[in-house]
Amino acid sequence: MYRSHTCGELRLSHNGQRITLAGWVQRSRDLGGMTFVDLRDRYGITQLAFNAEEQPELCEKARKLGREFVIQVTGTVIERSSKNAQLPTGDIEIKVEQLEVLNAAKLPPFTIEDETDGGDELRMQYRYLDLRRNPVQQKLMLRNKVALETRVYLNSQQFLDVETPVLIKSTPEGARDFVVPSRMNEGQFYALPQSPQTFKQLLMVSGFDRYYQIVKCFRDEDLRADRQPEFTQIDCEMAFVEQEDVLNTFEGLIQHLFKTVRGVDLPEVFPRMTYAEAMSIFGSDKPDIRFGMEFVYLNDEAKGKGFSIFDDAEVVLAINAEDCVEYTRKQLDELTDWVKRPQIGAKGLVYVRCNADGTFKSSVDKFYSQEDLAQWAKKANAKPGDLLLVLSGELEKTRKQMNELRLHMGNQLGLRNPNVFKPLWVLDFPLLEWDEESNRFHAMHHPFTSPKPEDIELLDTDPKAVRANAYDLAMNGVELGGGSIRIHNKALQSRMFDLLGFTKEEAEAQFGFLMSAFEFGAPPHGGLAFGLDRLVATMGGSESIRDYIAFPKNNSGRDTMIDAPSPLDEHQLKELGIRLNA
Known about the structure:
CATH architecture of the largest domain: 2-Layer Sandwich
CATH class of the largest domain: Alpha Beta
Number of strands: 22
Helix content: 25-40%
Structural class: alpha+beta
Mean pLDDT: 94
Radius of gyration: 30 Å
Strand order of the largest sheet: 6-9-10-22-21-20-17-11
Distance between the termini: 57 Å
Shape: globular
């Protein structure tokens, strides 16, 4: 037996007991007559005490221990004379009687501490060491608990956990596929699933009316803080349901997770907003509703005064930053530089200070009178002490730019508290979006999303106006998940493929198996998938999902720890029938 207890377990109630511990050396302190060693495992830290007078050889051995040595000790639990209130085990220490070095260790390239000195790339290269740090372990423990409670809830709602294939057919679902060559079928390729979409629909045809899976998915797309090439979904599907059934079921899941995992009570009914409203008010289909600063449209008030930047714009938009009148000229210049960055793309920023005496000071005083600016303030419900920030330009671009500025101000003003959680259902997305480059429609979600029943007649006359029977759950500016009611009728699915530019032959080649299944009695069905990584990161108050994944990729899609991706040798390439272009 390597250990009788863990390093986070012992308390004063164990005083006098003879125990055995094993773990890693966190740090050691040589005080001459006494040497103290902090021993760590994933459960906590326990102090070991070595007395030079009583056991000189053992104490000398302890002095040679380095950071991250793996050791085993046997000794007696005693009360500490100098207690450490910061540690759960801080009332006791171990009077060591036996010490065995199980494995010596090189000095790690960064300190294994809560606040480490290792940069991101270094920690990713030595991820197995980074995983020893308490903050990272806590994040993965949170992930484990979320996954466990997800299964508890879904099983209680009669969902069945069903595995679906990982080697599948390549189908167009939005992002690029990762493909895998088949040795036994030379010249042909599997794809890794972007989601189990068609399989979960086939399970509904098969009569498994409630399916779920915590499943790996793969998308070959550009990466950012909340994206990885491989990610995990809580994937769900239900038969004989309408939109309301799906929303109610998965409100229940999210309420259950936040209550059991974080001790947070979410609203009994989540607020809802249409896609059109979200874009109009916040410029985002995943708005952060923890704070206000809703968009104010100033076209009527700002145009026609000789200021060409506004006069020539499709839209003039403002947000009201409350109690920010004291922003200095330097701060306002910094905001202007921020919105002009290539990532944002605004040409400039106009401000209006609402002074305490009721007057206004603006960067466009030359064109607008005090009465004009008073009208702006009235439209924006701005009071003395507030600051209006104004952008203008093309409608869609300006909304996106203002959304970024709004979130930036929310961060600057401390309005985006990571421990406050505000869910929001966003409904009625457009079914289709027009792509100028390919000169055809693309599905905004995927080709199997059903249109709103009342909009089906518009498919032939006004496709852009057709709303999808789709829904996303947003929280704190993050899309936690989304789904839709699916098309379950072959004729309607064929019309959808036609609208998306598929020929009959292409539709049959790629989705013939699904269309065939619909001819054998497909029930009405719909579902939803949550991004487990994003959900856990949001619950943990983080923007990046990387630390909630045990072995993530970097922003270039590389695993620097194992050096992947990597070349194949010539023998493997030949066996697969692949020749690389020079």
